[in-house]
Amino acid sequence: MEIVVLLKQVPSTESLVTIAEDGATIKTEDVNWIISPYDEFAVEEALRIREAVGGSVTILSVGPDKATEAIRTALAMGADKGVLVNDPAAVECDGLGTARILAAALKQMPYDLVIAGQRAVDDENFQVGPAVAEFLDIPCITLVIKEEMGDGVIRCHRTMEGGTAVLEAPLPMLFTTQRGLNEPRYASLPGVMKAKRKPLENKTLADIGLAAADFSQPLVRVTALKPPPQRSGGRMIEADDAQTKAAELVKLLHEEAKVI
Amino acid sequence: MTTTHESIAFDVLFVGGGPACLAGAIRLMQLARQKGLDLEVALIEKGADIGAHIISGAILNPTALKELLPDYLERGCPIEAQVNADAFYFLTRKKALRLPFIPAPMRNRGAYVISLSRFTRWLSKIAENLGVNIFTGFAGSEVLYGNGAARIVGVRTGDKGLDKAGAPKSNFEAGIDLHAKVTVFGEGARGSLMKTIGNRLNLYAGRQPEVFETGIKEVIQLPTENMFEDFGVNDIHLMGYPLDIETPGGGFIYGMGQGRMAIGYLVALGYKNPWLDPYELFLAFKQHPFVAHLIAGGRVLEQGARTVSAGGYYTVPRLYADGALFVGAAAAMHNPPALKGIHLAMKSGMLAAETIVDALEKQDITTRSLSAYRRRVDDSWVKTEMFAGRNFAQALAAGVPLKFIHLAVQQLTGGRGLRDPLPTHSDHTTLRPAKSRPAPAAKATVACDNTLMVDKLTGVYLSKTKHREDQPSHIQVHDPQLCIDRCLPTYGSPCTRFCPGEVYEIVTGEKDAQPYLKLNPSNCLHCKTCDIKDPFENVTWTCPEGGEGPGYKLL
Predict the structure, then answer these.
(1) How many CB pairs under 8 A join A and B?
(2) What CATH number is attached to the domain comprising A120?
(3) Mind listing the pLDDT tens digit for each residue in B202-215?
(4) I want to staple B421 with a disulfide (CB 3.0 to 4.6 A). Which of A219, B183, B314, B523 is the partner?
């Protein structure tokens, strides 16, 4: 079974994110980087399937040089090889552009199963996995919490409001992960040692048959990022009796908060 | 539970990714190349990355760096700024008196202001390029002994994937036994493994007790227009307020360029007043009119805390054991009057590396050959420098006015003073009973806007500390009942104050209305204050799962 995991390196959830001068990107210099947690579920599930039925696990990512750290971590967890599409022209990509790149890279490699995170926890776009499936013209099942591999088919359980749906699709196919699918393993120390010697290929857009110029104009562009509104502390209404307090509260809700 | 531990053998294993081990690993590889030795070298670090748990002022005296990497500037050594001038202030409640004279060891003009977190990350890249296997996110949980328990043969890394009760989860990953011909311990002040080795192999016999300070530090981003850069001095040390004259400690402010400043406050853990709260002192320091003026309009980017091994020369333990060497702050490498230790840590690591290469070449890795490390230290500038300040911290720990007499005589006698060595007390023994000191009416309420004035829990957030909740507590309180029966009435539970991360709380039980100790180990900044200061030695700090804890970038 040839399994490909789509992986993105994202700022760690503990990072203090600050918006850059341009107002549309974040400052990245003091940020810690991790594998997007949903992609970590994807890596773990891929490894479990390989352990059960044999085959190999390839990590595929789009990103700058730094993204090799995330791929190495996945290799240390046990994946077999990595491919990084590393091209300055890909930096500005929107979700659809990223999906086109990943699909183009996939067309050059064997795959029976593609596993992606349901979303990356930085952009929160939810687009890339399904769009890759579309570009490859293969079935896609999203938000999977359990899978069972059959003969040439996969059965996936996905959560829905108030219950679970069980879906089946023939291979090759793509599914995206949901929390609860598994508990990702740690990169072991021998795994870290072995990961250094595992193949990690860097590719440009030209290498996967794409023209850089096609990616200069993303269809969707981030024009502004805004931090959540500042939380202000609560205010205590001071008064002698409950009646006066209530009257003051009503007044404030009406005049200041303008909610009644 | 019986767990099998895979083992991997190296020639040399470094425990800890600080300046001591990194400089040691680099020197080791340099020498191995020169001599054509093929060495397998590993370095483990409990932080998720090199630098994640590293915090220091920091003014770097570049002596050791120049010896290790003469072309450090060409290699892009991350230097934040160069010290343009020094200033030394004594603070009263409202005023700041600039001292006309700066003690010689504290003159830093020309030295570098660095972020030790960045600096060590840079060193780690050099070490890696020389072939050192660096394993970040792996904590040493246990020392491995061999040869009838007399010889240190390596370190076991911590298990990962245990639940709260200590049972393995589905992703359990057993620790690995890392075996080495020589293991170098450089875990920093109060290393958790160093402590066990010290007790087991009597490394501290005949030494002055090791003493510590707790430091809290922030990096502040100042507005474009700010008083600090106009002030023109980028190396400021301050003593006096808010500390009483009895307790040693003080503050520092260093300019980092780009409108950033490092600000910190240290308190000697030999303090006597059980009500003292180092974090509250730090806040009060920041609110002193002189300091408040310099930091006005700023925003805290990062905060952290760590203990410093501050005792100096006479507190340095035996530096070698069969199969092991001890370097850096874990071995008390610090120059107390200069307030510096990075260069001594680096040099100690380098001298350890030279000793190891000699021993490996002679194929004689015994206590005898490794003891040459101690001689190397004594023959180097490490000894000269540390010896001059050998009684300094002990003098400061004395009462008033005795401390001033000690310091004056030491000044005149090249550090010898009235008694040499001047004895002192272990930090856990110095607290006075709570009733002997006036209890603060209520917890000092410094108004925190959590932008420039940051409360403890926001500080934990700004340290980017993370621990998985579902794991056994890495803070071991041996007898929780003692906390309530003896510590609370005698000392008023000082752990609730000395811990800068609010790991310790005394809360009242909902059912029985009885007080009990509540631990929040996930707040832990890995500073080790509790392990040092607890008056009943009732707390043992151990490493949590590797890769957890603070995530420093700038400190």
Answers:
(1) 52
(2) 3.40.50.620
(3) 999 999 999 999 99
(4) B314
